[in-house]
Amino acid sequence: MNKAFLYIILGAALWGTIGWYVKNLYAYGFTPMEVVTLRVWSAAILMVLFLVIKEPKKLKLTSFSDVKYFIGTGIFSIVFFNYCMFTAIDLSTIPVATALLYTGPAFVTILSLILFHEPLTKPKIMALVITIFGSALVVGLIPLDLNALQLTSILFGLGSGFGYALYSIFSKFALKKYTSLSITAYTFIIAAISLLPFFPYQEKWPLLMEPRVLFFAVGLGFLPTAFAYIIYTYGLNQTEASRASILTTIEPVVATLIGVFIFQEAFTSAQMIGMLCIIGAVILIQINPRRTKMS
Fold this sequence. Notes:
The chain is mainly alpha-helical. The protein has one domain (about 5-290). The chain has helices spanning about 5-15, 20-25, 30-55, 65-90, 95-100, 105-115, 120-140, 150-175, 180-195, 200-210, 210-235, 240-245, 250-260, 270-285, 290. The two termini are about 25 Å apart.
């Protein structure tokens, strides 16, 4: 297999392990917003250290006014979608939260139509319909299961997909002047700074000094975040973005396996079909990049 493909698959598979770290941090009493803070701070530190050692030029801003792009990717996307996703994991299950996160490409399609007037082609329309149908299966609207249906978790899950989509939208502007790796680094730097006032340091500091808690906190920022983004970016630089997007669909598969087999979370056959529909829609929307190009 192409090395670039292996990097992308490994990066996406590591993203799929996020729920494992999150669930374990919840067990120690951390809230969703506190877990978001731990993730972005540890990732920001690791990303900066990596670039200082390997490629310091990528930490140089062309203009200070460009910070506005990273406010978009860092606060409106990373902080918002992580908070929504971690809350959805807390309210529902890892498989359901991850499946709803993957509605992101559908939101990208809609936002690109509104903001950039990108054409709404037949494959895009079909992918949107499949995504809506798949999401309805995942959350229990089809077949209607009032016991499984939790409006709050659905809204947070869809919110994570919307926030995830915003990263592509804001990155579209930043990519005119910066590389993917630079954007990722500054995204986490801005996100980390923005979360400084919201973490109860005095209350949580003794807890963070416990080896297991430190392992999960730093591990969340390292393997499924900084390291995953770095190797994904290296793979992305050697292949087409459309192919990379298809390969990242390994993420919800890994997340589902962790949720079902490690945390014994329920995941019905209907929800599995729904997840496959959402993954299929992502593949469909990328299968012909010339006609259905996404940001």
